Amino acid sequence: MSRIEVGDTILGYAGGFFGRDSHDTRHVEAVGSDWVIAREERGTVVLASGEDIHEQLWEHCERNRPRVKGEMRIKEAAVFYQGKTLSGPRHGELTFQIIGEDGGLVKLAHVMMGFVTECGKFVSRQEATKIAFAAGQIKSDLGGRPLYSEDLLSHERSER
After folding, report:
1. How far is CA 132 from CA 20, 26, 67, 148, in A?
2. Strand-by-strand arrangement of the 112-117 sheet
3. DSSP 61
4. Which sequence spans correspond to the domains of the chain?
5. What is the pTM assigned to this prediction?
6. In angstroms, what CA-CA distances link 19 with 8, 43, 44?
7. What are phi and psi of 19, to 5 degrees?
8. Shortest CA distance to 86 belongs to which of 120, 56, 36?
9. DSSP string across 111-147
10. Which residues of the chain have pLDDT under 50?
């Protein structure tokens, strides 16, 4: 096991160590023996702490990920809401499913849209863009915009 270092990238939900509503990719800015401070893609500074925090975060560290092209792939669209992840072909369908289950009382600001990888890991739209491009699931990096489920579906159709 390696220690988390300044400059490391921590991917996705990261076991909830940065908070249950934190799903963005984070870039580590400071570390101590039992704490890690990182900045999310949207600029929020977050803290994770605990006796074994380096060990806990290591499995979510990009430096710990295999570098073989295509080894990690996006499986399908996903939404995270009230502690659960729903996945399927399109974000819109999943959002309507949540609205139906919640009696129409959903605050969409509390719905995190992203994707799940083939190993079942929830990742942000931004991280999914990087994964899908590296795996050859999309033809470009989308000019910096986040991945949409339609991007994967249109690429699948063009492959047929």
Report:
1. 25, 19, 14, 11
2. 84-88, 74-81, 112-117, 122-124
3. B
4. 9-64, 74-159
5. 0.54
6. 18, 15, 12
7. 120, 150
8. 120
9. PEEEEEETT--EEEHHHHHHHHHHTTSSSS-GGGPPP
10. 68-70, 160
